[in-house]
Amino acid sequence: QVQLVESGGGLVQPGGSLRLSCAASGFTVDYYAIGWFRQAPGKEREGVSCISSSDGNAYYADSVKGRFTISRDNAKNTVYLQMNSLKPEDTAVYYCAAKIRGRIPTSQDMCALDYYGMDYWGKGTLVTVSS
User: Fold this and answer.
1) Which DSSP string corresponds to 80-131?
2) What is the pLDDT of residue 34?
3) Angle at the Cα of 98 (from 109 to 10), degrees rounded to 5?
4) 10-63 pLDDT, tens digit each
5) Which DSSP string do the residues of 1-13 spell out, in sequence order?
C-alpha cells in the first residue's frame, strides 16, 4: 500500500528555518518523481520543489530558489524539504506528492502537474511564518 506521510510543520518566526519530511511506503522514492507543493488560504496549490529519477535534477519555484533545498534519504525512503529564511508568504499547508505510474516526468514537469496529475498525495503539514 502506497502512503506518504508529511511531518515537520509548525510555527516559526520570519527568517527562521524548518525541515519538512515526507516518509514514503509502498514504493522506492529514488525510482520515481516526488514533489513538495503548497496551498495558502485563498490561493491555488503550487509546486514548490520536485526531484525526479527521470532527469536526476531538483527543481525549485522562483519564489523559494536559494532558500529551500529538497533532498532524499534512500535508506529511510524519505524526502526532505529544508526551508531557510522563511517569509510570511511561505505560510501554507505543504503537501508531498508522488508520480510512480506511466512516464516519469522531469523534476520541472513534476512541479507543473496539477492535483489530478499525481498518483499519490499526503495529507499535508501546516507551516505558519509569523512574528
Assistant:
1) EEEE-S--GGG-EEEEEEEE-SSSPPPHHHHHH--GGG-SEE---EEEEE--
2) 97
3) 105
4) 999 999 999 999 999 999 999 999 999 999 999 999 999 999 999 989 999 999
5) --EEEEE--EEE-
